[in-house]
UniProtKB/TrEMBL annotation:
Residues covered by the Butirosin biosynthesis protein H N-terminal domain: 14-142
Protein's recorded name: Lantibiotic ABC transporter
A matching Pfam family: BtrH_N
Domain DUF4872, first and last residues per copy: 155-324
Organism phylogeny: Bacteria, Bacillati, Actinomycetota, Actinomycetes, Kitasatosporales
Organism: Streptomyces chattanoogensis
Length: 327
């Protein structure tokens, strides 16, 4: 058996910030989950639909692993990433750091993890691994998934080897903090401005505030878009509210990040952004509830109402990011 000592196995709401928290605490840096999310410029929006998809996808954060790259770059941390097509090399890439007393982050497909409560393929899942024995790997996942958990080595191997949307080639990573660590507080404004810039100037209409506006136009048609609205609509709403988002499609996390920042930085622009994202978070939860009700009832009026709120959300988030871009 190999086990990293003195691991804080706190599970948080979102998978990537949970894993980052484990790795950074081991390096002596303990940040709140909203601060990890915000310093990683994690907030985003995407509306995605295609003929190959059974139902549209709504996303509220940057693509998998981009948050990790953003956060480590912002804080001047050493991020060592290993990828390989060889399962044998992949295991060595994980076992070696753990044997040396360092936890490892893994990107994998959650479908194959023994403890996972919802069996769906998601190749962008991230966990921290801190030990193993002859049969099991010891991981830290989100609080809803159990925090400190274990899965069979065979299941872990399948999860890491899976191929498909958002998967990586047996990706593992470690983080090392330098002696002269950049103060997190000094990186708050650049991280917020980076996030705002991308949100306000999306390259295509599916992203950022333009993506929310597009969603406002498409959601009222969802009963016709789905072959099984009684399942598709509530599932989409559940993904918005649960599924590691922290609620309100990650808007609760960003609201709390801005609130924490406002305690450290005196800025009217920051207070405006926080106030608007507090409003937005509440409205996103209302949208999810309306989508659920529409799926259960088959009544399009709930989707029409959701569309109206989404139109308002596009404006609110645009104004919030415009204020934050002026920091």
């Amino acid at each position: 058996m190999a086990m990293v000592k003195d691991i804080d196995v706190r599970g948080m709401q979102h998978c990537e910030t949970t894993a980052l928290g484990v790795l950074l605490r081991h390096e002596g840096l303990d940040l709140s989950e909203p601060m990890l999310f915000g310093l990683g410029s994690g907030l985003s929006f995407i509306y995605w639909d295609s003929r190959a998809m059974g139902f549209p996808f709504l996303g509220g954060r940057v693509k998998p692993f981009e948050l990790t790259r953003n956060l480590t770059a912002a804080l001047g941390l050493e991020l060592l990433i290993r990828e390989t097509t060889s399962p044998r090399t992949a295991w060595q890439n994980v076992a070696a750091p753990i044997d040396a007393g360092r936890p490892v982050g893994l990107q994998l497909d959650s479908y194959h993890l023994d403890y996972f409560t919802t069996k769906v393929h998601f190749g962008g899942h991230v966990v921290a691994m801190y030990g193993y024995d002859g049969e099991a790997a010891y991981l830290v996942d989100t609080a809803p998934q159990g925090g400190a958990v274990s899965t069979s080595l065979a299941g872990l191997a399948r999860a890491r080897a899976e191929r498909g949307p958002m998967t990586a080639k047996h990706r593992s990573f470690t983080i090392t903090a330098p002696c002269n660590l950049t103060s997190p507080q000094d990186r708050i404004i650049p991280a917020i401005r980076t996030c705002a810039e991308v949100f306000l100037n999306p390259p295509i209409a599916n992203l950022g505030h333009r993506g929310i506006e597009k969603t406002a136009k498409q959601v009222p048609k969802w009963l016709q878009r789905s072959d099984n609205p009684q399942e598709d609509l509530p599932r989409t709403a559940a993904l918005m509210e649960r599924a590691g988002t922290g609620g309100a499609l990650f808007r609760n996390l960003y609201r709390d990040f801005l609130a924490e920042c406002a305690q450290l930085i005196d800025s009217s622009h920051l207070r405006t952004g926080h106030s608007l994202y507090s409003e937005a978070a509440t409205l996103w939860t209302q949208v999810a509830a309306l989508i659920t009700t529409a799926g259960a009832s088959g009544d399009a009026k709930h989707l029409m109402q959701a569309g109206s709120i989404l139109h308002e959300l596009s404006r609110i988030e645009r104004e919030a990011m415009q204020a934050l871009s002026m920091l």
